[in-house]
Amino acid sequence: MGAVIRRLPKGVDLVITNTFAVRAIVERNIIFFRRDWVILVAGFFEPIFWLIGISAGLSTIIDDIEFGGELVEYTAFVAPGLIAVSAMNGAAFDATFNFYFKLKQLKIFDSIITTPVTITNVVMGEAVWSVLRSTAYATSFLILTVLFGLVASPWAILIIPVSALIGFSISAIGIFATTFVRNWHDFDYFSLALQVLFIGSATFYPITVYPSWVQIVVQFTPLYHGVALCRSLALGTAGLADVGHLIVLVGFTAFFGWWANRRLEKSLLA
Amino acid sequence: MTSVSPRPSSVWHVVEHHAVQTRRTMQTVLLSGFLSPVFTMLALGWGIGSQVDDVSSLGTPDYLHFVGPGVMIGTATLQGGFSSLWQALAALRWEGMYKNVVRSPATFTDAMTGRLVWMGILNALSSVAFLIVLVIAIGWSGFGALLTPFIAGLTAMSAAAGVLAFTSRKESGDGFSVVARLGLTPLFVFSGTFSSIDTLPTAIATVIKFFPTYHGIEVARDLINERAEVVPSLLHIAVIVAWIALGWALSFGGFRKALTS
């Protein structure tokens, strides 16, 4: 006896989502990646390489960095930023490249929406899967940083939900951007954007390094807010500014998630 | 199949094919071979550079002088290595481009040699663009810098040859992303790119010296900073060339099996 999936009225399903349908989409991903689990594990190592490669060497020539009024060792400064990066990486590939593959190449969404599962369920399901992957990466990385003694505050436990939010926002933006993709070559722009976010989001140095106009531009990018949140949680300097970062990430998620959903409904139901 | 040693004129035809094909995907070269590394170099060079208190231990005037050549050669490694994954598999199996090559007077060794030579040329060319930005940022230090694109081309060839030995035996793309993430990324990050190799954990520093990227970065850094000496530089280059030869030799069997049976 399969459970009955009921379609919720349009619009309502963006907020109150049909858990059974979303679960079906997530399960499809789990079954798919069970064969390719090595890819999932490999993705986890990349930020760790960067942590060792950049901070192990540079901590010998960089004195403590001032953050939130306190002096922080360079490795402890970089590590939480890379947790945020691992959350972004966890979501980015599935929300863009894989999403496009399913949408245009396999056309599985065309088949799925002939069932009671709606487009919104699909978007939600894919986003939830991305968030699971993000959170798994970020949590493993967090445990590692705790073991290395790089975490100064019990607030760091909140990095786990924050990394889920980072994954959710990247997923929403990624799926939205993917609705504009014309062919595989367009993903070159995505790779560039990911690299710019990775390096440029004050991951390896304080944002005050930038001229003021760049600092303003960076405020409009998602990863910066994730890096700032993870950093202040890990170093125990969380404050009112972090509420602002949270609001921005929630805003990104809601706005681009809604718009992505709208664009997909238009194109798939056309 | 009369001879297995590559013939220059046939190799050049394969190079030309790849050149024409790349012209259609110039966007990829521009974005991932030029803009992305230039951004990385400038952001890390200036951003991290502003935090470095003790420049003297780097042995260069500032951090950009140090990290610039590192990112240049690291990028050549990534670009060269990547080109031997899905792209090479497509040419060898999916699209059957090289099957067409061996129906001409050119042989399978011409195909693989031409592919590697083209990766060298392409990365040398994109490194010229990278070098122009680097020189604008740090100033003209001398003619030695003009040799760095040549080192980048050789390093790209060595990475392409090494990965091609693996790809030439594969029928599908299984394991490719693992090679990229667990093979190429560590080469980029651990080859003394961001700090002297002595500051890395000993195990990593020991193993990385067996790979070409570290040697390419050493030579390029010496050239950019006008401190290159002939003998040590030639020894570094010899390691890179040895990798090209090794990768070529190990790709041989895979190419022969795929294209002549």
Detailed description of the structure:
The complex is a heterodimer of chains A (270) and B (261). By secondary structure, chain A is mostly helical. Chain A has helices spanning 12-15, 19-35, 37-58, 74-105, 108-112, 119-147, 159-178, 187-200, 212-219, 222-235, 240-268; strands at residues 65-67, 70-72. Chain A has one domain (20-268). Chain A has a two-stranded antiparallel sheet with strand order 1-2. In chain A, a hairpin with a 2-residue loop joins strand 1 (65-67) and strand 2. Chain B is mostly helical and 261 residues long. Chain B has one domain (8-48, 58-260). In chain B, 74% of the residues lie in helices and 0% in strands. Chain B has helices at residues 8-24, 26-47, 63-94, 97-101, 108-138, 148-167, 176-190, 202-208, 212-224, 230-260. The longest helix of chain B has 32 residues, at 63-94. The mean pLDDT of chain B is 93. The interface between A and B is large, with 34 and 39 residues.
Read across the widest sheet of chain A, the strand sequence of neighbours is: 1-2
> Which structural class is indicated by helix and strand composition of chain B?
mainly alpha
Give a short account of the largest sheet of chain A.
Answer: 2 strands, antiparallel
Q: Helical segment tally of chain A?
A: 11
What average pLDDT do the residues of chain A reach? Answer: 89
Percent of sequence in beta strands of chain A? under 5%
Number of helices of chain B: 10
Helix content of chain A: over 70%
Helix content of chain B: over 70%
Mean of all residue-level pLDDT scores of chain B: 93
Major sheet summary line of chain B: none
Distance between the termini of chain B: 11 Å
